[in-house]
Design goal:
The complex is a heterodimer of chains A (329) and B (486). By secondary structure, chain A is mostly helical. Chain A contains 17 helices and 2 strands. Chain B contains 21 helices and 10 strands. The longest helix of chain B is centred in the C-terminal third of the chain and has 22 residues. The chains are: A mainly alpha (329), B alpha+beta (486).
């Protein structure tokens, strides 16, 4: 993989350096390009509807949010320019202050979850001698994905019910007289949300990590074995550095999902009790559809976009993949 | 089309293509006239009274609904060119329904008549989402000639209760919801309890129920629960301010509307902080009888069906469902108990009835029709007048066990207690409907914080006051005429 990447870089360099002088070549190149476009004009024409639809339904709404974020807009009538007032509100209002803190917890926690349990499960499956058994476990871990998320939420709501729920019934049976109120108390509601999905075996993450482990050349594993690197030592010195690409991907995907997710709030808690579980994305939704404040909702969207963008850049820059790991050595 | 142009390249083909495009456009965008004898189809979302589509498999105990279809068929007989087509939507999930309204109002693809609660319409009136029905209500209803106007057919106070902040009426409030305490008669009998009449009896009954291992009072203060918290607010606050109502009724319509609240907040006598303090002191006292975790999602209705809850507040809409459940225990209703002087010095001793225009028969017409197809509106209005005539409306409300707001429409005997005229109706909306939707949400969060012990009673009252003033400022921005000059 590293060879392939370095070849690509070389190829780009060669193309850039070996081209004819710009002034002489540009006219010819432009003409050629025009000729080529004319030659394949029906292909380009055929692509227009797709690009038009993408532009109208994907790019235009996304880009227009940057404008609406600075306006007072009800989603229907003409927006009025109000400068940074919406951004000021998302930092000053009590509900958003709760939301940012909750978001931090609800983002860090799934990152930790996706970096631990699925890696462990992938290692266990990778270590199985029987491939058939490995395939079977892979299927089992991916099977829960066929259950709609709303059903999962409803199940967990039942588990957490303080009156007749599974968890408290069990705790009562153990002799605990005053078990937690889970989603019914501001002091336990956020932690209850973190518990949803226990034991947090994310099937997709398992498959991605497993793919990374399978891609490690057998020679490297054999060499590690000869050097006496087994168990935790092999995981730390061989497996983990070589699946850093997958780790990086999962961190990015999980961060984005956590920042955008408000399913818990929508289906389970409505952000409560007492704002204890609310997040900015949920308040964005409420601002738009409950309060008709699409300007404020746009400002939240823009700010979340900026956070995701910055985190992705940091992630790409500072979490090095296995290829870069080899290069520095 | 492009390929055809390429092949033929002739001017004739270009002309032909232009004609085709224009004809498509005219077909798609043309509103069409509905005057005269042209065929008209009115699409109608009737929420809970939507006729059951043929072939629908219903749960055991439920019977298909057909009354509204019968009324529509009768209208079609009178006006063969008009067909009423009922559409099936889901408004059970408020969030999803709000999204539906937003997108379909934008796309001009709403049903010609649709359902929405009046308090949810206020935010959308500046967006011109609804046809102003005030002028039509002032006209005579040809299907009820004994009334001077269509508006005169409604019970006194009903139209004022749904009047928008701009003074207009945007919905036909056909029916309403009465609220009482639903209780498990078998449990009460087993414990030697009778339906409590006073607050003291009420708390005593709850203590007995709790001792016996039952959940005394089913409720949830989760924001997804439509009703429990606002209903308790009306029942309790209503009893404490009942003798002050005339003080707030500046508009003299026997109803305290948003305008009254906005003006009195500026004058400084709304909210009455002593009343707020007293109400929430009492609420906190009884909160120990609520289900565990009541600040979050608790399905107390299901717990009642499972014989675990002694009583809870419920609207008359629940009766058909409860009857179809064939519950293994007897159940009944009683009015919310009276708060007496020995409980609170602010008590007026006046028992009140909670009744809100929140039923299935809330009819609105999308505002864009005034531009896209104004000729259709008189036909729609004519059908609504026909459907609201007592002889027709009675069929619909009787089947749905709704409380009719139309004079001369008989109420189904099963829900007679909900229209008990001996207990006065309390003419103030709950906090969720009084000011902005954001205010409703903020107050509910505040109540949660207070009941969870996160803030003191004094802080609660102070923040309640601050939030009210902030919401009033927002209302004044929208309706500057409500600004009281100092």
């Amino acid at each position: 993989m590293s060879v392939l990447e370095s070849n690509n870089v070389d190829a780009v360099t060669v193309l850039t350096n070996s081209g004819p002088p710009k002034s002489a070549a540009s006219g010819t190149a432009r003409k050629t390009l025009r000729q080529q476009i004319w030659r394949y004009r029906f292909c380009y024409l055929a692509m227009i509807p797709t690009f038009a639809l993408l532009g109208v339904f994907v790019f235009y709404p996304a880009v227009s949010v940057f404008y609406y974020a600075f306006t007072n807009w009800d989603g229907f009538t003409s927006p009025q320019w109000i400068g940074f007032a919406n951004f000021a509100e998302i930092f000053q209002s009590d509900v958003f202050q709760h939301g940012w803190v909750n978001l931090l917890v609800l983002t860090i926690s799934p990152i930790i979850q996706v970096l631990t349990v699925p890696v462990l499960v992938a290692e266990l499956i990778f270590g199985l001698r029987s491939q058939r058994l490995g395939n079977l476990f892979r299927t089992f871990f991916i099977l829960p994905f066929v259950v709609p998320l709303t059903v999962t939420f409803m199940l967990w709501q039942f588990f957490y019910d303080p009156n007749v729920g599974l968890i408290n019934t069990f705790l009562n049976w153990l002799g605990i007289q005053s078990p937690p109120l889970w989603l019914g108390s501001p002091s336990t509601s956020l932690i209850s949300l973190l518990g949803i999905g226990f034991p947090w075996v994310n099937g997709v993450a398992v498959l991605i990590y497993l793919a990374g482990l399978i891609a490690i050349p057998g020679e490297i594993l054999d060499a590690a074995k000869l050097d006496g690197a087994v168990g935790w030592t092999r995981f730390r010195t061989v497996d983990l550095p070589l699946i850093m690409g997958q780790v990086k991907l999962m961190v990015i995907l999980t961060t984005i999902a956590a920042l955008q997710n408000f399913g818990y709030q929508l289906f389970l808690t409505s952000g409560g009790p007492a704002n204890s579980t609310t997040v900015p994305a949920y308040e964005m939704y409420e601002a738009a559809f409950r309060d008709s404040r699409f300007g404020l909702a746009s400002a939240v969207g823009v700010f979340l976009f900026l956070i995701i963008f910055i985190l992705t850049v940091i992630n790409n820059r500072f979490i090095r993949s296995s290829v870069e790991y080899q290069a520095t050595n | 089309m492009l390929f055809l142009l390429y092949r033929w390249r002739g001017r004739a083909s270009v002309l032909l293509a232009c004609c085709m495009v224009l004809s498509f456009l005219f077909t798609a965008c043309g509103g069409g006239s509905t005057s005269g004898t042209a065929n008209v189809t009115i699409t109608f979302y009737a929420q809970g009274e939507t006729p059951t589509p043929p072939g629908t498999k219903l749960p055991p105990g439920q019977v298909p609904k057909h009354a509204f279809q019968d009324v529509a068929n009768a209208y079609h007989k009178l006006h063969p060119n008009v067909t009423i087509k009922f559409v099936t939507l889901s408004s059970a999930d408020q969030n999803a329904y709000d999204q539906y309204l937003q997108s379909h109002e934008l796309a001009h693809s709403m049903p010609d008549v649709f359902w929405q609660n009046f308090d949810e319409t206020f935010n959308n009136i500046p967006k011109h989402w609804y046809v102003n029905l005030s002028p039509y209500l002032q006209q005579k209803n040809p299907y009820a000639p004994s009334y001077a106007s269509w508006a005169d057919m409604f019970r006194p106070g009903v139209l004022n209760s749904v009047r928008a902040p701009d003074g207009n009426l945007y919905e036909i409030p056909g029916d309403g919801v009465g609220v009482m305490v639903l209780y498990n008669k078998d449990i009460f009998q087993k414990l030697g309890l009778s339906a409590p009449q006073t607050w003291t009896e009420f708390t005593g009954a709850m203590a007995t129920l709790q001792k016996a291992g039952y959940i005394p009072f089913g409720t949830s203060f989760d924001k997804s629960d439509c009703c429990a918290s606002p209903w308790l607010d009306v029942f309790m606050q209503g009893q404490l301010i009942y003798n002050k109502l005339s003080q707030y009724d500046d508009t003299h319509i026997n109803y305290i509307n948003t305008e009254d609240v906005v003006k009195h907040t500026q004058k400084g006598d709304w909210p009455d902080n002593s009343v707020v303090q007293e109400e929430y002191t009492l609420l906190k006292q009884i909160s120990s009888y609520f289900p565990k975790g009541y600040l979050g999602p608790v399905d107390y209705r299901q717990l009642f069906l499972q014989n675990k809850v002694g009583m809870y507040l419920e609207g008359n809409w629940a009766i058909p469902g409860l009857q179809s459940e064939n519950l293994p225990f007897k159940w009944g209703w009683f009015n919310f108990p009276t708060i007496t002087q020995d409980v609170s010095p602010l008590a007026t001793g006046q028992q009140i009835r909670l009744y809100g225009t929140y039923g299935s028969e809330q009819w609105l017409i999308p505002g864009y029709l005034q531009q896209t197809n104004p000729g259709k509106i008189p036909t729609i209005i004519d059908f609504l007048r026909f459907a609201s005539a007592p002889q027709n409306f009675g069929l619909i409300t009787n089947e749905g066990m709704a409380v009719p707001n139309i004079i001369g429409t008989a109420t189904n005997p099963a829900i007679a207690p909900f229209v008990d005229g001996n207990v006065p109706f309390f003419p103030v909306q709950h906090y969720r409907a009084l000011l902005t939707p954001q205010f409703g949400s903020q107050i509910q969060t505040l109540i949660q914080s207070y009941l969870a012990g996160q803030i003191s009673l004094d802080a609660f009252v102070s923040q309640y006051d601050t939030l009210t003033k902030s919401a009033v400022d927002t209302e004044i921005q929208q309706f500057p005429q409500w600004k009281v000059s100092s």
